[in-house]
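Researcher: Sequence of ABC-type transport auxiliary lipoprotein component domain-containing protein follows. Predict its structure.
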Amino acid sequence: MTRRLIALALFVSVALAGCGAPTVPDFTYFRLPRPQPLEADGTPLFRGALVVDAFGADGLYADQALIYALDPGAQQLRQYHYQLWTDPPTRILQRRLIEQLRDANVAAQVTDELPASHPAIRVSGTILRFDRVPSAAGGYDAVVALKLRADARDGTPFVDDYYRAEKAADGADLKATVDAYGAALDEIFARFHADLRKRGADIHAG
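Model: Prediction complete. Tokens:
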């Protein structure tokens, strides 16, 4: 009987100790809002295929966690522990650009993979900034900076430039910042699309 009482007392003490333990917050996963359509071409600008590779990223931007700055100059950055993208941004941005270029009828085929031996226009990108930044006036901004490049079928780059956009979030919650990320990407991809049309007009991908 004594052993049973000791065991019961030990069980109760462990249970009570557990009640005082802090609870771990739930993970929250974020998706970007639907993209704004690009200006569509009546006929494909490129008659062959266009391949959009997975974006590159170094350090923090290669991870799945949302990134925030501690200061308006974004010199100090941190990762959220429980606020994550549904997929790494390197894949999210790739799929978003594919969808927008496909809907805009940029090429006869817009895809994410083809054998390296297959002739195609090839688009690559690198994430340089993808930050939630406190604004000096209060609130938050979504800051996005990308390096985007398009290579002709012979490997010669005809678009190779840096693009940056900054959009104010319409609220202090993270969802508002995620919506601002979407608006910033829409602006950047629209500018990249315009460069594709302007600089690639004389390239014939048969």
